[in-house]
Amino acid sequence: MLPDFETLVKEIKSKRKDLDWSQKELANRAGVSQSLVAKLEQKMNVPNYKSVRKIYETLEKTISTETETAGDLANPDIVSAKPEETKGKVAEVMKENDFSQLPIKKGEDFVGVVLSKDIGLARNDVLVKELMRPTIPIIPENTPREAVAELLKSQNAVLVKGEQVKGIITSADLL
């Protein structure tokens, strides 16, 4: 459902100010007149749909290109383990790399994650498949930084996917 006119005007004005643009700059970028933007923000005029759409899309495109995404944050060098590997081998890899978790990969698919706290007391010969957690979230590469940060409050890591998995993000990548 479309927002009411007043809400839409407030959102346009707020986004323009967030970008630190003058009415004239927004008008030039959107291909409309400065007076139309001024009248719109003062609620003196209800412009046609096409003009409002141009203004709104101009703001959205600019904001989305300035926002850092999961694709920007992802580390493309994914170190992973196989379900058949032992806890001892995985613990060694985690220590060497100072990792607190490792994604588990079976063939081409990521099938889970093992956390340092999951393997701490296990015997060295226990297989990773017995210790791993069954899922690791996979998010689209255009996911905004804020959404990634929110997800990492409850997850230890996320994988980032375009056409294929492109990288991994942990909370350390947000620093």
What does this structure look like?
This protein has 175 residues and is α+β, with helices and mostly antiparallel strands. The protein has two domains: 5-66, Orthogonal Bundle (434 Repressor (Amino-terminal Domain)); 70-174, CBS-domain. The protein is 45% helix and 15% strand. The protein has nine helices and five strands; from the N terminus they run ααααααββααβαββ. The protein has helices spanning 5-18, 23-30, 34-41, 49-66, 70-73, 87-97, 116-119, 128-131, 145-151, and strands at residues 101-106, 109-115, 138-140, 157-161, 165-170. The strands form two sheets. It has a three-stranded mixed beta sheet. The chain has a two-stranded antiparallel sheet with strand order 1-2. Strand 3 (138-140), helix 9 and strand 4 (157-161) form a beta-alpha-beta unit. It is rod-shaped, with a radius of gyration of 24 Å. This is HTH cro/C1-type domain-containing protein. Residues 12-66 form the HTH cro/C1-type domain. Keywords: CBS domain. GO terms for molecular function: DNA binding.
- As a percent range, the share of helical residues equals 40-55%
Number of folding domains? Answer: 2
Kindly identify the CATH topology of the largest domain. CBS-domain
Strand count:
5
From the alpha-carbon coordinates, what is the Rg to the nearest angstrom?
24 Å
| Poorly predicted parts | none
Strand order of the largest sheet: 3-4-5
Anisotropy-based shape: rod-shaped
The CATH class of the largest domain is identified as Alpha Beta
Assembly of the depicted chains: single chain
By CATH's scheme, which homologous superfamily of the largest domain applies? CBS-domain
Span between termini: 37 Å
Biggest β-sheet strands, sense, barrel: 3 strands, mixed
CATH architecture of the largest domain: Roll
Average pLDDT figure: 90
